[in-house]
Amino acid sequence: MAVLISVWARAEQVTLAWDANTETDLAGYRIHYGTASGSYTASVDVHNVITYTVTGLNAGQTYYFAASAYDTSGTESGYSIEVRHSIPAANRAPSAPSTPSGASSAMVNTVLAFTSSATDPDGHSLEYRYDWGGEVLSNWGVAGQSHSWTGVGQYTVKAQARDSLGAVSVWSDGKTVSISPNQASSADLDGDGVSNDQDAFPGNPAEWRDSDGDGIGDNADPDDNNNGIADALEQNTPPDAPLPVAPAANEIVGLTALLRTAAFQDPDAGDSHASSRWQIVQSADGRVVLDVTSATDLTSLQVPRLILDENTVYQWRVIFTDSRGASSTWSQTGSFVTDFDLADGNGNGIPDDQEADGSIDLDGDGRPDAAQPEIKSIALPASAHKIGVQTGGSGKGVLITSLESADEDIVDFDVDLDGISDEMPFGIIHFKLIVDTPGDEAVVTVYFSDPAPRNGRWYKYDALRRKWSDFSAQAVFSADRMSMTLTLRDGGEGDADGVINGVIVDPAGVVVASSSGGDSTVSSIAGDLANASDSGSSGCFIQTVAGEPGCPLILLSLLGLGSLVGVWRIRAA
Q1: Nearest-angstrom CA–CA distance, 570 and 68
Q2: DSSP letter at 355?
Q3: What tens digit of pLDDT does each residue of 165-183 get?
Q4: Per-residue model confidence (pLDDT) at position 408
Q5: Taking 50 as the threshold, does the pLDDT of residue 430 lie above it?
Q6: Which of 77, 67, 65, 54 is closest to 18 using CA atoms?
Q7: Domain 9-81+539-570, CATH homologous superfamily name and number
Q8: Residue range 526-555: average pLDDT?
Q9: For the chain, how many helices (H) and strands (E)?
């Protein structure tokens, strides 16, 4: 059987590959394409190669591709079976949010609630943040958020929206809020038992709170939280704020620290603990290094590998959400200090017991990998294999800071959930990248000392969700399977820290699924298409005649994320 080459598609371009013809007088191939089936308005002579990238395609447009072969006398075959691929439409930013609604005046230290709304032209979910004036920004979160001011004056409140793919709207129009000093003439002017600095209506003894900031006191407001559900029908009280238990304040911990809280508490009988949001911040610069929500790690979280740096002070906090969707406030902030990485004595980002021989040259450029800052190589402790990861393929500044391998017994290697453990010839590798700008794309090359199995695929592991995901659409193996080009994005799928922060943490590996059947699936597809061609139901538009090049046969496999993986096998007549 001919060797199959994986190819892929990215925005506004498609890469196609095929097996070579066997005719001795073969001269080359042509790719034909257009925006209607069977009508090819463009073609390109790719000469005698077996892979080609068609560029300059329009986002949001569907294209149809076919191939032909020609010999040294200029005789050309008919068209191959047609391949169709739709170029994804470019992600559009959300609309400008509405002007925040809420109270226009209050006293110092009074908590005011604001809400805003925006729409997304692509139908993506949205989250919001607020500018409270003076460049004080909230965290990204729900549409309704609250704030209190400690200073007297006028503040402009604005909202901004961000979709689930990271596109950010312009700021909304501003709402002016006037903050006045606390009334000193009386601790409780209206005699309702609530001090003036806590009373949203200091002159009205029947009202003192305005939960949704709409200027109507809670007693008179039928929908205090402005969520469209009458207060009389709402009985769900948010859970109590989590109580951090460990680590103790400023305790020295390892690089995979275990964070723990006290048990979930909720005032409503019958409410259960649905999820927890864990956030870790580097104290020195306020950079968020982990922000994940888990339905399994509810009161304890083992921090994944390579998230934390050694000898660094961190702060952490948690939010609990109950089974009816109500979320607590943030917990009190805990703190800890990471110990030195005792497994990496020389501080080069590679565990001492995985250091590769100083002469190893996995990228084959004639220079030892250890002498090149853009590549790190390791020797796998449980085998003779070696793996290297090299940066520099994206055209942007990317730095690799850590690389290590782990055979973790706690990981279930049954990626396809068929009950049979799968093979990982190189184990799990973890590496950490730093990109120039948060949200940047990074392209790296992974080198293997031995060829990756032909039926091996690149899988990501999510340690927090205990879940594997096929990442083959972003992983392109070389023809000899000795290397692989991998495309990643900060904060995107596969980035273990769950946040756009300029750091990509990537646990992954080559997996040979036990139920994949080797190449039998591909062979079956090839046979089906060949039979269809022989029966007259498909094939060349122009019948092949004796002596002409054979008709190309296209095998098409669509993988995740809308990418195109196509193999064109060209056979003799």
Answers
A1: 9
A2: B
A3: 888 999 999 999 988 876 5
A4: 53
A5: yes
A6: 67
A7: Immunoglobulins (2.60.40.10)
A8: 34
A9: 1, 33
- 244-338: CATH topology is Immunoglobulin-like (2.60.40)
Q: What is the mean pLDDT of residues 514-530?
A: 36
Q: What is the pLDDT of residue 410?
A: 46
Closest to 468 measured CA to CA, from 408, 520, 517, 518: 408
pLDDT in tens, 322-347: 988 889 999 999 999 988 877 777 77
Looking at the predicted structure, is the pLDDT value of residue 516 above 50? no
Give the full edge-to-edge strand order of the sheet including 375-379: 375-379, 386-390, 441-448, 483-489, 475-477
Q: What are the tokens at 471?
A: 């990442």
Distance CA 488, CA 505 (A): 10
Nearest Cα to 190, choosing from 213, 228, 167, 217?
217
Supply the Cα-derived Rg of the chain in whole angstroms: 30
Of all residues in the chain, what percent carry a pLDDT higher than 90?
24
Token pair, residue 226, equals 């402005």
Q: Which residues pair with 65 in a beta bridge?
A: 33, 83
Q: What is the DSSP string of 72-109?
A: TT--B------EEEEPPPPPPPPPPPPPPBS-SEEETT
What pLDDT, in 10s, does the model give residues 95-151?
999 999 999 988 888 889 999 999 999 888 999 999 998 767 899 999 999 998 887
d(CA 439, CA 394): 13
Pair 206, 117: CB distance under 8 Å: no
- Residues 6 or more apart whose CB falls under 8 angstroms from that of 456 comprise 425, 481, 510, 511, 512
Structure tokens that stand for 215 in this block: 């200027």
In whole angstroms, what is the distance from residue 84 CA to residue 62 CA?
7
Domain parsing of the chain, residue ranges? 9-81+539-570, 92-235, 244-338, 352-511
Q: Mean pLDDT in the chain?
A: 78
Report the distance separating Cα 462 and Cα 441, nearest Å: 20
Burial class of residue 176 (count of CB atoms within 10 Å of its CB; 0-12, 13-18, 19+): exposed
The domain defined by 92-235 carries CATH number 2.60.40.10: yes
| Tokens 């002070």 belong to residue | 313
Q: Count other Cβ atoms within 10 Å, centred on residue 80.
A: 28
Q: Return the number of other C-beta atoms located less than 10 Å from residue 560's C-beta.
A: 12
**Distance, CA of 24 to CA of 334 (rounded, Å):** 72
What per-residue confidence (pLDDT) applies to 396?
A: 57
What tokens does 324 get? Answer: 């009816």
Output the pLDDT for position 256.
86
